[in-house]
Amino acid sequence: MKMVLGVATATILLSTPSFAQQLPPADAKAGECYAKVLIPANYDVTPEEVMVQPASSTFNKTPAVYKETEKQILIEEESYELVPVSPVYELVSETVLIQPEQIIKSVVPATFRQEEKKVLVSPARFEWKVGRGAYEKLDTATGEIMCRVEIPAVFETFSQRVVDKPAQTKEEVIPARYETVQRRVMKTPPTTTKKIIPAKFKTIVIKELVAPEKFEVIETPPRFATVQKKNLVKAESVEWRQILCETNTTPGIIRRIQNALVTSGYKLGFTPDGELGPGTQAIIRRFQEDNGLPTGGLTLSTIKKLGVTL
Q1: What are 103-116's pLDDT values in tens digits?
Q2: Per-residue pLDDT reduced to its tens digit, 212-246
Q3: What is the CB-side half-sphere exposure of residue 302 using CA atoms within 13 A?
C-alpha cells in the first residue's frame, strides 16, 4: 500500500493556533514535501559513580566437618595351640649277610704212573778176543789174531710205580651270601607344632571431627558502578522536515532504500518491491529509533544515514 503524503488544507491551518509556526519553511521549493516529524530529545551523557549496593554485614555459619573412618577393635587376642605331628616313616633297602664267606680245604691224592726203569747190571767194557778168520789177520807172523772189542753194558728192565703228581691241599672259596631286605625306618620322630590362632578384630565406622563449627562475620563493602547520566540539552520537539512523498520519489528510490535497510541488517520479510508499504515504514521507523533520527516520515537525514543518493 502506498503512503499518501500531502499538505493540510487552508481551513485546518487557519483554525490552528500559532498559524505562522504551523507552516512549512517559507523557502520551500516546488516539488518538495514537508511533514511534521518528531525530533528526539538531545541529551548530554556524563559518567557518574553511583552506589548500587550499600555496605552490609552477613553472618556465615560453617558447620562442623566430620569424616567417617573405619577403625579395627580387638575382640580376641592372638593365641596358639600345640598340634601333635605324627612320626614319618620310610622304607629303606638294606643288604643283610646271610652266610659269610667260607674256605673249604680238601686233599687231592697223589697220582702214580708205571714207568719202566733200566738197571745197569754190568757196565760196558773192552776186551781182547781171538780173531776168527783171515779177514782179521793182519800178518802171517803168528797166525794169531786178537781183536779189541767193546762189550756193551748190560741192563735189566723192570717196571716200577712212581708219583706222577704229589698229593696237594685244595682250597675252595664259597663267597658270602647276602640278601636285600626292606625295613620301615622312622625318618622324623613325633613332634608338636605351635599353631597360631590370629587375633580377632571387628571393623566399626566412627565419625572423626575434622573441623569444628565456626561463625564468621563477612563485611561486604559498598559497591559502586559508573553509569552514564543523561542530561537533557534539548527537549523533544516537533518540526517541519523535508520528506519523500508521491510527488518527489519513485519506486526505484524506494527499492534502493529497501536494499540499504537489508544491507544495514534489517530484514524486510519480502523481496524489495519499490513500494513504501506498512512493512517498509515500520522498518524505517525502527532504523530511525536505533540511530536517534527524527521519526514520522522518510526524512532526508534518514536517507543520508542509509547512504542512498537521490
Answers
A1: 888 888 888 888 88
A2: 888 788 888 888 888 878 788 888 888 888 888 77
A3: 29
Question: Where do we find the cell 488544507?
Answer: 9
CA separation for the pair 291, 303 (Å, rounded): 12
Phi and psi (nearest 5°) for 219? -90, 120
**1, 277 Cβ separation under 8 angstroms:** yes
Any alpha helices (H) in the chain, and if so which ranges? 10-15, 19-22, 251-263, 278-290, 300-306
Separation of alpha carbons 57 and 218, rounded Å = 6
Beta-carbon count within 10 A of 266 CB: 15
Calpha distance 184→93 (Å, rounded)? 9
| 41-97 residue pLDDT tens | 887 888 888 887 888 878 788 888 888 888 888 888 888 888 898 889 888 888 888
Residue 162 grid coordinates? 712212581
Helix count (H) and strand count (E) of the chain? 5, 18
Q: Which residue has the cell 499518501?
A: 4
Strand partners, 161: 114
